[in-house]
């Protein structure tokens, strides 16, 4: 097993995000990555730096206009400065995007204006995705960690497994829209990478939040099945999607499954839902798997509404191990810095027992 991370992923240092009308201290702090790195080191897992693949792998799931925006927005934002007007220190929208709810349309047209203010509203879906001076570099390198992990599993074939320490996370990123601390969909990019060798791939998302971006990207496709377990979105981000009746569209119908869980669900309830999800996954017979692994399901996570504990993470690891499918684990959320290292360690004790 190999793990991938680049120190460039620490450069993104968000200063603020909006929660219920209040600008708050960021939760996606660089210290999260350090906690996860420490766990990998104590388990003797090699942490490699991904090669620089450029933009090509990101373009397999994102529109070029959206990536242009992410790459250039900070400098263009600073250029808004005029005598008597200073733009904010980060790119943050002051408009709300139009959400038409049409699941049969998996991509919008490019933003019809080149105003950076209009584009910030169009491409940054909420106020949790500020772009600072080094954000793009971290976003790009986080995606590269996922690409390298997928490449490694492609090389290894049967029994291959890798962990991508992705930060920023990715599963809320749509093909042309950032959201929920996510800019580029690392798990979707890893799934595309696995398709280079494997004919059928599944993405299983066990983060506390619905993997709405991953769902949107593959909603009309049958070569990548998407399954997400998450807190009931009726009262939790991302609110608009993640319901059980979202099954896919067109050729993708039947290849998207959501398991919204009652708030307060603990280990037993979470693992029971995971067993149901894995039954569906086995019926699909994927040749490779991407696991979107989040630890914001943790009972003491600052934004959690679930109550998963360390036994739950071990149980998740054991079940994915038992699947026996080549797997790329992609890190998603998890914001209790003092707990996520332990959570990863416990997950790995089940997922990679030979390395315990
Ligand atoms: Zn999350």
Automatic annotation (TrEMBL):
Indicate whether Zinc appears among the record's keywords: yes
Among InterPro entries, the record links this protein to: HDACs (IPR000286), His_deacetylse_dom (IPR023801), His_deacetylse_dom_sf (IPR037138), Ureohydrolase_dom_sf (IPR023696)
Instruction: Name the needed cofactors.
Output: Zn(2+)
Q: Which Gene3D superfamilies match?
A: Histone deacetylase domain (3.40.800.20)
* Start and end residues of each Histone deacetylase domain: 31-348
What does the UniProt keyword field contain? Hydrolase, Metal-binding, Zinc
Give a Pfam family name. Hist_deacetyl
Gene Ontology process terms (BP)? epigenetic regulation of gene expression
Record-level Gene Ontology MF annotations = histone deacetylase activity; hydrolase activity; metal ion binding
Give the signal peptide range.
Answer: none
The highest taxon in the source lineage is: Bacteria
Any coiled-coil ranges, and where? none
Q: Which family does it belong to?
A: Belongs to the histone deacetylase family.
Tell me the protein's name: Histone deacetylase family protein
Q: What is the species listed in this Swiss-Prot or TrEMBL entry?
A: Cupriavidus cauae
């Amino acid at each position: 097993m190999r793990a991938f991370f680049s120190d460039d992923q620490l450069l993104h240092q968000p200063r603020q995000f909006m929660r219920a009308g209040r600008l708050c201290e960021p939760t996606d702090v660089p210290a999260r990555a350090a906690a996860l790195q420490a766990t990998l080191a104590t388990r003797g897992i090699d942490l490699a730096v991904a090669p620089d693949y450029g933009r090509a792998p990101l373009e397999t799931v994102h529109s070029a206009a959206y990536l242009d925006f992410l790459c250039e927005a900070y400098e263009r934002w600073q250029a808004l400065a005029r005598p008597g007007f200073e733009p904010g220190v980060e790119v943050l929208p002051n408009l709300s995007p139009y959400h038409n709810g049409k699941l049969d349309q998996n991509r919008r047209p490019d933003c019809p204006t080149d105003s950076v203010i209009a584009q910030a509203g169009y491409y940054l879906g909420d106020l949790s995705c500020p772009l600072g001076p080094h954000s793009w570099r971290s976003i790009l390198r986080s995606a590269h960690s996922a690409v390298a992990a997928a490449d490694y599993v492609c090389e290894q074939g049967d029994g291959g497994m890798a962990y991508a320490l992705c930060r920023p996370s990715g599963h809320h990123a749509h093909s042309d829209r950032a959201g929920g601390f996510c800019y580029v969909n690392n798990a979707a990019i890893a799934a595309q990478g696995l398709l280079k060798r494997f004919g059928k791939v599944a993405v299983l998302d066990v983060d506390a939040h619905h993997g709405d971006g991953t769902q949107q990207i593959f909603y009309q496709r049958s070569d990548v099945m998407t399954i997400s377990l998450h807190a009931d979105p009726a009262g939790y981000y991302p609110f608009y999607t993640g319901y059980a009746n979202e099954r896919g569209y067109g050729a993708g119908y039947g290849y998207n499954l959501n398991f919204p869980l009652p708030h307060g669900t603990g280990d037993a309830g979470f693992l029971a839902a995971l067993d149901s999800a894995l039954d569906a996954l086995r019926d699909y017979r994927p040749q490779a798997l991407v696991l979107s692994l989040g630890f914001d399901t943790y009972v003491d996570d600052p934004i959690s509404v679930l109550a998963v504990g360390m036994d739950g993470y071990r149980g998740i690891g054991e079940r994915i191990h038992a699947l026996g499918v080549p797997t790329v684990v992609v890190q998603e959320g998890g914001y209790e810095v003092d707990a996520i290292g332990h959570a990863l360690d416990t997950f790995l004790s089940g997922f990679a027992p030979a390395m315990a």
